[in-house]
């Protein structure tokens, strides 16, 4: 049987493989609600403009309501032969209300319809994600406040560098995810324009009012160029790019959780709810959720690169290639939502091991910089000389397999006789972090204040 929507020009139906490659209903049904909202707005505008009779408008609205409840109740039969969500809805509308259904598509094309649906869908997704990331930030800031003075090693090159606090480390991710939210909000601002009324590509000869449909759907304005409206997917790419950067942040944190929860580090303990056991090794508590957060990043990057590649060679305006914009986005979105939720759960339950962290913080001569700074301050040594003197002291300690604060005053003075007993005050890790009071530094007082600022900000 030839197609109901365009059968006039055709005598035969599509090959089965043609139908399989062409159909998008299995995935674009996800935005049925947006499709129906778009149709409602379009029909109401057609009535107000005198393009559609009041009577037809009422029947269309009633029919669309019925379809929405059928889909919600799970009683709607989606058909592959009807290709996509737009034609599935329209076909059902015509079953329900008869010939008036055929008037809904006046001054509209599936090209502006799908672009509208997708923008609405991405907008909702961005709003959901924003709230989810805010919940993660709240979990991080609460943990940071609770552990603002827990000392741990700060790393460079994954070598212990200088002591920092656990709270400070957690707050670093609050700052990063704040920028992730900012990027998503920027993308939302740019995508919130209406393609509806661009029709197939050139606009329409009907006296439509695009301002009306834009306002009804919560868009800021109609898009100014009909070719652009139906043919760009930069709003998906931009959102995917923002998700990719978010995924980088989540993956780095997940990697740290994997390292921290290992027996060798023992910095944190994940709760039972966020670990798995082994079927053979009874002692195991594996950080599977963190590992999967790290791995899901691959999907999100893949979706971004995949859609970039789909789009890059397409002449204006619409090409069917663009139907391939949805699955990667849905997949990346699902992954991102899981990743953020899993991170929130892990962080909320995570317990730091204060002793292990403090011991590791003091190892590896991590207060050597504090010693050099003391030489500058107390003895007015130029920093370069202080660096050299400290290096020699570290060498003495290292040869004797001792920490800096285990050296005797005589041993310090053997390197530089001006050194006094006051030096011992700067060699402990607690003193070290407490002294880092510069703006943005790791001093517990700073961390406490910043955590409180965030908690307050996230509450409003
Ligand atoms: N299912 C199509 C898509 O996702 C809808 C637009 C179809 N337009 C067309 N000219 N064939 O892109």
TrEMBL record:
Any one annotated GO CC term: cytosol
GO molecular function: argininosuccinate lyase activity
Catalytic reactions on record: 2-(N(omega)-L-arginino)succinate = fumarate + L-arginine
Pathway: Amino-acid biosynthesis; L-arginine biosynthesis; L-arginine from L-ornithine and carbamoyl phosphate: step 3/3
Subcellular location: Cytoplasm
Alphabetical list of Pfam families matching this protein: ASL_C2 (PF14698), Lyase_1 (PF00206)
Keyword Lyase recorded: yes
UniProt key word Cytoplasm: yes
EC number: 4.3.2.1
NCBIfam families the record matches: argH
Family, per entry: Belongs to the lyase 1 family. Argininosuccinate lyase subfamily.
Protein's UniProt name: Argininosuccinate lyase
Gene: argH
């Amino acid at each position: 049987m030839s197609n109901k929507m365009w059968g006039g020009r055709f005598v035969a139906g599509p090959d089965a493989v043609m139908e399989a490659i062409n159909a998008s209903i299995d995935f674009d049904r996800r935005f049925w609600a947006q499709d129906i909202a778009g149709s409602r707005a379009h029909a109401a505008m057609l009535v107000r403009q005198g393009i559609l009779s009041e009577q037809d408008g009422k029947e269309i609205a009633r029919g669309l309501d019925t379809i929405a409840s059928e889909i919600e109740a799970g009683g709607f039969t989606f058909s592959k032969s009807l290709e996509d969500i737009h034609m599935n809805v329209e076909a059902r509308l015509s079953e329900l209300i008869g010939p008036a259904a055929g008037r809904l598509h006046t001054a509209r094309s599936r090209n502006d319809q799908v672009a509208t649906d997708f923008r609405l869908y991405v907008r909702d997704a961005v709003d959901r994600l924003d709230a989810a990331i805010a919940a993660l930030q709240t979990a991080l800031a609460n943990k940071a406040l609770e552990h603002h003075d827990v000392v741990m090693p700060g790393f460079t090159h994954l070598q212990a560098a200088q002591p920092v606090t656990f709270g400070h480390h957690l707050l670093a991710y609050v700052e990063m995810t704040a920028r992730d939210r900012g990027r998503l909000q920027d993308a939302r601002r740019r995508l919130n324009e209406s393609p509806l009324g661009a029709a197939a590509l050139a606009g329409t000869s009907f006296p439509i009012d695009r301002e009306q449909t834009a306002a009804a759907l919560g868009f800021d304005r109609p898009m100014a160029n009909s070719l652009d409206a139906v043919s760009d997917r930069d709003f998906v790419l931009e959102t995917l790019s923002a998700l990719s950067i978010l995924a980088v942040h989540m993956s780095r944190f997940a990697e740290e959780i994997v390292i921290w929860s290992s027996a060798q580090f023992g910095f944190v303990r994940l709760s039972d709810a966020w670990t798995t056991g082994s079927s053979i090794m009874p002692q195991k508590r594996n950080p599977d959720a963190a590992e999967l957060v790290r791995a899901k990043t691959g999907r999100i990057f893949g979706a971004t690169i995949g859609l970039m590649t789909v789009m890059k060679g397409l002449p204006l305006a619409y090409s069917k290639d663009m139907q391939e914009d949805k699955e990667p986005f849905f997949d990346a979105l699902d992954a991102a939502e899981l990743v953020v939720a899993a991170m929130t759960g892990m962080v909320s339950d995570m317990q730091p091991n204060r002793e292990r962290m403090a011991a590791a913080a003091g190892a590896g001569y991590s207060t050597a910089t504090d010693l050099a700074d003391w030489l500058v301050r107390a003895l007015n040594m130029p920093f370069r000389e202080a660096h050299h003197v400290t290096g020699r002291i570290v060498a003495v300690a290292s040869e004797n397999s001792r920490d800096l604060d285990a050296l005797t005053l005589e041993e310090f003075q053997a390197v530089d006789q001006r050194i006094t007993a006051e030096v011992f005050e700067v060699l402990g890790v607690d003193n070290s972090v407490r002294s880092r009071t510069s703006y943005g530094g790791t001093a517990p007082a700073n961390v406490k204040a910043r955590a409180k600022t965030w908690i307050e900000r996230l509450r409003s």
